[in-house]
Design a protein that fits this description.
Length: 790
């Protein structure tokens, strides 16, 4: 029952400081993999494919898959499923609660670990609270990194091994209970496997796990039942390791693959930073753990060598291992303290157990109690800074300082050793900057704060109350569960329209409504770039994938004066990856929904990606047109080349005055099904402007007409979808103009005629056909008959 109260208390505290906002691309990659896995697309990186622009993904896949251990994505999948089925809850917003629960569960396991080691409940609870509130595990609860989950799994593994070893050491003179013995071993090994699927750093913790599991008297292992079980387990582990190594042989995080290329050059830089630096060490960001050295000394005096050595072995193993295997990446990017060493924190907290026990027995001198309280308060204050100030403030501050000083300041250099740029001091001075906490940014504290306080109060009551019956336990668990559910659901609901996800953008909501209503199986969404990615990551709940295209080198990005590549060749303006990704995607999809923040009149924008799509595929409807966002559908059918030859399959030669329709192609033929897209590729030739026509940007209208003369499908747009206005056409030039007609799903089967006309939108008139045959239409050209089936 104390565990339930502890869990509820910590979850409520963590939710009170919840931000729900990613700070690293690693978090986005993991979320993307989870989203793809939820919908059966393996672990492909759709939203975030721009971060891994491989030229040739394996298996003719359109994008690369998640290139790191997948357990975080697997564990997050149920949260994403819930978000999809609960209205008013964002996908990312719910996913970002994962480490809240993982960190709170880690504290619960730490509590049980302390009890198993022989300490009183209150000492174990006090130690678990110190871990949960006074170490940098708290700030990491609000992020989506893998370390909190890995920490939980490794701690459970060690706890299972501890119980297993205690079973062995108590076996003499007792009846051997195979079920209990095997149960703890299975738990330990299962969590070890899951930890390996979370981070391969689990290979670095082998020494500490052996130290936990090895009995005080090795001869107690010489029981034929124990030996048989251990042999079977080791065989299973060996088989799994072999499969695992093969599965991740190309993994950029693969420690097994790095064993042959060990690089010690970064050890002198990384190891001191991890262990003793004032701006990055584990002690600087969790001062309460310094009290553990007194606990370490106490354990040595008591002869509890195993409990004293397990945390030390783990710390040295992980710190040295990361210093070697991460090399130049030892710093770990944006975070709060050494992220890679987070799994060590609950083990170092085991050194606090003797301190907590001494406090509760009131056997400490007053000055020692004051020191303990002071260090604990300082440690909590450090975590409060980490959860209330945006972590992006630190690199931003260093950048501004570097500009002022005339040289760059790197967090992994100046921030580690220079007291002037200590991240704790920097963020402490910026405590008045805009807070990243969700309820602060969204102005929903009146909802969230009371809910969290009620849950905290419920957790405290359950934590201190003694329960003597299963009925009491059930009622307490139900009270905490209901309180937590209400806090999370109502709290997340109050954050739904978070400005950080562009939740107030009415045009994006309009686009999302169009997607929700019109999309169907086999469709896909293409984003011009990552401009709208976070909005869709959080609010889009359909199974069809969304792919973010890479920034085109021919586009002028941000405030840059010129593009990366200055050329008039549209093929070179677009990203080379488009020619790899789009044909692969076209092979498995039936319609694309293209979203862009750029329009024909966007200042200084060339729109190379949209131009590429218009030239190589078939634009259909522009469903949303706004200065800030547009939504266009495409038929993912390969269009004929925009050069001549080759000439169109169907010759026409119709003269509209402004241009001559040379001919057309029907890539899918003249027989299609209702509810699909009908692609038509027109070839125009401009022979100059006749005397009775002034240069003007006419539109092209392609229509499907039934036997009663009514239009059943139509597309009216400037030629080449505004990329080649007719007034700019050169004499003798040929222009490929691709169109796709959206055929209604309820369109009756039968024969329909396909019309093309040139339209003067300023006068609402059609240009006449100058070489029309007798009895032929005077203002449009009938291309032929289209056969519609169901």
């Amino acid at each position: 029952m104390r565990a339930v109260g502890l869990f509820g208390l910590l979850v409520a505290v963590y939710f009170l400081t919840y931000t729900g906002d990613p700070v690293s691309t690693d978090e986005l990659l993991m979320f993307d993999g989870a989203h793809s896995f939820l919908h059966g697309r393996s672990l492909e990186l759709a939203y975030t494919s721009e971060f891994r622009p491989y030229s040739t993904p394996p298996g003719y896949a359109p994008v690369i898959g998640l290139d790191t251990e997948p357990m975080q994505a697997f564990v997050a999948t149920p949260l994403l499923w819930l978000a999809e089925h609960i209205p008013g809850i964002g996908m990312m917003q719910l996913a970002w609660t994962l480490n809240i629960f993982a960190t709170a569960l880690t504290a619960v396991v730490l509590y049980y670990y302390g009890v198993v080691l022989g300490y009183r409940d209150r000492a174990a609870i006090l130690t678990a609270l110190a871990f949960g509130l006074a170490t940098y595990a708290w700030p990491y609860s609000k992020m989506f990194f893998r370390e909190p989950l890995f920490t939980l799994l490794i701690l459970i593994c060690a706890y299972g091994l501890e119980r297993w070893r205690q079973q062995i050491e108590g076996i003499e003179g007792q009846r051997f209970r195979l079920s209990s013995f095997v149960g703890w071993l299975v738990l330990a090994l299962l969590t070890l496997v899951l930890a390996m699927l979370t981070k391969q750093t689990s290979l670095l913790v082998a020494p500490v796990l052996i130290l936990v599991a090895l009995p005080g008297r090795v001869r107690r292992l010489l029981n034929w039942r124990i030996v048989a079980v251990v042999i079977l387990v080791l065989a299973g582990i060996g088989l799994f390791a072999q499969v695992y190594q093969q599965s991740f042989s190309g993994n950029r995080y693969n420690i097994l693959a790095r064993l042959g290329i060990i690089d010690l050059s970064y050890v002198p830089l990384a190891l001191p930073a991890y262990l003793i630096s004032p701006g990055f060490s584990i002690w600087a960001f969790s001062p309460v753990l310094l009290l553990g050295f007194a606990g370490f000394y106490s354990l040595l005096r008591q002869g509890r060598l195993r409990q004293a050595l397990v945390p030390l072995t783990f710390l040295l193993s992980l710190a040295l291992g990361y210093s070697i295997f991460q090399g130049s990446n030892w710093y770990g990017g944006t975070g709060w303290g050494p992220r890679y060493l987070l799994p060590v924190v609950p083990f170092l907290a085991l050194w606090l157990l003797p301190i907590a026990d001494a406090i509760l027995t009131r056997g400490l001198a007053a000055w020692k109690q004051a020191v303990i309280v002071g260090v604990g308060a300082l440690s909590i204050f450090v975590q409060v800074i980490g959860v209330t100030v945006s972590l992006q403030e630190f690199p931003g501050y260093l950048y501004a300082e570097g500009v002022a000083l005339g040289h760059s300041l790197a967090p992994w250099q100046a921030g580690v050793w220079n007291p002037l740029y200590n991240p704790i001091f920097v963020l402490a001075h910026r405590i008045n900057s805009p807070s990243p906490i969700a309820w602060v940014l969204n102005g929903t504290g009146a909802i969230v704060i009371p809910l969290c306080l009620i849950t905290i109060g419920t957790g405290v009551v359950v934590l201190v109350r003694r329960c003597t019956s299963w009925r009491g336990f059930g009622l307490s668990a139900a009270a905490v569960g209901v309180s937590l559910a209400a806090t999370c659901l109502l709290g997340l609901g109050s954050y739904y329209h978070d400005l950080r996800f562009r939740g107030n953008d009415t045009i994006l909501w309009q686009i999302l409504d169009k997607l929700n209503v019109g999309m169907q199986s086999g469709d896909a969404v293409l984003l011009n770039d990552n401009y709208f990615v976070r909005f869709l990551m959080n609010y889009y709940k359909r199974p069809e994938p969304i792919y973010a295209m890479l920034d085109a080198p021919g586009e002028r990005l941000g405030d840059n004066a010129s593009p990366e590549i200055v050329t008039a060749n549209p093929e070179l303006q677009a990203h080379t990856y488009d020619a790899v990704m789009l044909p692969r995607l076209a092979a498995t999809t039936s319609r694309w929904w293209y979203i862009t923040e750029m329009g024909p009149y966007s200042k200084d924008r060339l729109r190379p990606t949209e131009h590429y799509l218009v030239r190589h595929y078939f634009p259909a409807q522009e469903l949303v047109t706004d200065v800030s966002a547009r939504l266009i559908t495409f038929a993912p059918i390969n269009a004929p080349p925009d050069s001549v030859p080759p000439w169109p399959e169907h010759k026409v030669g119709t003269d509209f005055g402004s241009a001559t329709l040379v001919g057309y192609d029907l890539p899918l033929g003249d027989a299609v099904r209702a509810g699909t897209l009908l692609p038509i590729s027109l070839l125009w030739r401009h022979d100059g402007w006749p005397a009775d026509l002034s240069p003007f940007d006419y539109s092209i209208n392609v229509s499907l007409i039934n036997h009663e003369g009514a239009t059943v499908a139509q597309r009216a747009m400037p030629p080449l979808s505004t990329f080649a206005p007719m007034s700019t056409w050169v004499k003798g030039g040929y222009y490929r103009d691709n169109h796709a007609l959206e055929l209604p799903p309820n369109l009756p089967a039968g024969d329909y005629t396909l019309w093309v006309l040139v339209y003067d939108w300023s006068r609402n008139t059609n240009l006449p056909v100058r070489n029309a045959a007798p009895n032929a239409p005077a203002d449009h050209m009938v291309l032929g008959t289209i056969h519609i089936g169901n």
